[in-house]
Amino acid sequence: EALRNMSEIEIQAVNRRLSQEVAIVERIARLALDNIATSEKTAQISQGALKQYLQGYDMGAVTLSELITARRAFYLMERSRIEQETASEQALLNYLALRISSAAIVMGVTN
Questions:
Q1: Buried b (16+ CB within 10 A) or exposed e, 33-64
Q2: Is the pLDDT of residue 88 over 60?
Q3: How far is CA 24 from each of CA 20, 30, 37, 47, 92, rounded to the nearest angstrom?
Q4: How many angstroms separate the CA atoms of 13 and 11, rounded?
Q5: DSSP string covering 20-52, please?
Q6: 109 pLDDT exceeds 60?
Q7: How far, in Å, CA of 58 to CA of 53, rounded?
Q8: The whole model's pTM is what?
Q9: What is the pLDDT of residue 110?
Q10: What are the residues whose beta carbons fall under 8 Å from the beta carbon of 33, sequence distance 6 or more?
């Protein structure tokens, strides 16, 4: 009986820890989704700014040097955005993996 009570206490502790970890990872996943949405908006703004530079160049209001600098900044921003989205997507995958493993553990414990 004491051994059974001990294992029930251990199961409760594991479930509590899993719940805490899932809550943390859920927050990270929400932040990851927010990060992806923000980076997409930033990309749209940057793309619009680059188009304006191109139009300015076509009209003679922007020099070739300024256009090249704007393009370089745009490409650097795009690379950074892709890296951020990759990290955010990895956080989402980690969240899914944790949810699946915690469900498997809970099902294994209750079966």
A1: eebbeebeeebeebeeebeebeeebeeeebee
A2: yes
A3: 6, 10, 20, 34, 12
A4: 5
A5: HHHHHHHHHHHHHHHHHHHHHHHHHHHHHHHHH
A6: no
A7: 9
A8: 0.65
A9: 52
A10: 88, 92
